[in-house]
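ARCHIVE CARD
Drawer: 12
Card no.: 0347
Subject: one protein chain, sequence and derived structure
Cross-reference: see card 0346
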Amino acid sequence: MNGPTRFGVFLAPFHSDDEHPALQLRRDLELMGHLDRLGYHEAWIGEHHSGAYEIIASPEVFIAAAVERTTNLRLGTGVSSLSYHHPLMLADRMVQLDLQSLGRVMLGVGPGQLPTDAFMMGIDPVDQRRRMFESLDVMMRLLRGETVTERTDWYVLEDARLQLLPHSPEGLEVAVASTITGSGSTLAGRHGVGLLSVAASSPTGFDALNTNWDLYERTCVDSGHRAERAKWRVVIPMHLAETREQAEREVGWGILKFVRYFAGMAGKMPRWGHDPADALERWRTSGFGPLGSATVGTPDDAIERISKLVQHTGGFGTFLLLAHNAADPEATARSYELFARYVVPHLQGANRGRHASLAWAGENAGRFGSRMLEAQQQAISTFQH
């Protein structure tokens, strides 16, 4: 396949700790309506429990509210941390949400990103990926309507079954987060579900994209599934404005707030974290850890970045903008609008017919013009006598 045909947003979210959290959450809900009106296809909502910035603890609660504010936007957990939940409880909640939304819900899964979250629950980070594998194996069976009896060191299922099943006969759409290690690709391939590359623009994550896709493809084949690039989602941060200079000014509003989150989690401020220009240079080049490097510029810059990514990977189905909130709310909303107005139609080829029509008209302007002039002269001759 060529470039992506579907577009969306990955909302962790990232909110600085100097504003009222209630207003920040309301703004996130308003964003869902904005994306829906602009024609975005999907939004993925994160789950976190510590660190001050990523303040959505229950993506399901958020999605339930967002569904009522939107019409077409599909909403996914981005991602549910499987090691934190009993698999029956999470499967049950997701199916209820799927029915409430009439099939507009997706289940994104991962092991759990923040070690601080795991620590508070007494979970050893070494066990999280194993737990993710065990949990999704069970959840996929439950979502198919199977009855499951299974015991592990962290959950028990006795004749467990779901009393409700997904809205669509095809079942609930599932995607597994993939960063640098091959665990996400392996698990997604085992079940033939989607792949969600959340670290695509970090140097190590970018280098791992094709390796992880190859692993996913091989695991799909070994498990009796067909690997489909249309199920591959890739996440990159961007902020767009009419000019690069304007985009840089807008990001300067909050980029140091964004940096403060990483500094707080790491326990020290990086040397480039004191000046907006230095932070922007870092974000554009080496990037901010697993969140990767950003495109801060114009719609043309975004098109160029995505086109290079397509060339590097061989193609994927959905491109997701990482919601970073480094610019103020008005500029952020405008960035999403510019992406929808100019980047999406270019990558989808939505205006091919219009471009061809205008070119055809120009190429034949002499022929068409002479005949129109002749028709006008004939009319003058006919109706003035």
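Annotation on reverse: The domain at 6-350 is CATH 3.20.20.30 (TIM Barrel). The CA atoms of residues 253 and 328 lie 7 Å apart.
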